[in-house]
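Write out the bound-state structure for V0V.
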Amino acid sequence: GLLRIDHVGVAVADLDEAVEFYTRVFGMTCVHIEENTDQGVREAMMSVGPTTEGGCVQLLAPLSPASAIAKFLDRSGPGVQQVAYTVRDVEVAAAVLRDRGMRLLYDAPRRGTAGSRINFVHPKDAGGVLVELVEPPR
Ligand code: V0V
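---
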């Protein structure tokens, strides 16, 4: 089953500007920045509270016009792009959701933030929300 909210993903045009905004206005702390070429993003993990136990906001900026985030920004503008849940085993969680009629975007998990393993439920199957499953690195 799902363990907790891992992060809420927010599409932004300019990552550095967004990190500065979330830090100054909401008092969040940037705990990780990375470029994920497989996903076409440059991303920053912002801890909401003093530890990441309080959940994170993941700021997502496109690396190229072909990126899922570039497409999202074109269509919807900046804003919430995904909700991500922590799971113990992403393959098991994906299999359970497939059994319940959800389309998973990938046949096998791909690489997410900091070596996590990820998959997604299609937003059209989940009431218009792109749902991400995250198995943290061991
Ligand atoms: C598209 N749609 C969405 C949506 N993206 N609805 C809600 N939330 C979103 N994020 C709607 C869109 O408006 C269409 O609705 C419909 O889905 C199908 O659109 P499409 O043009 O066929 O699909 P695309 O080409 O926009 O692709 C959508 C998907 C794509 C979800 C398939 O974005 C994708 O592959 N996402 C997974 C990867 C990803 O998002 N990577 C970036 C984060 P109408 O018009 O038909 O009603 S990377 C990340 O999270 C990392 C690294 C991490 O957490 O570790």
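---
The mean pLDDT is 97.
Helices lie at 15-26, 68-76, 90-99.
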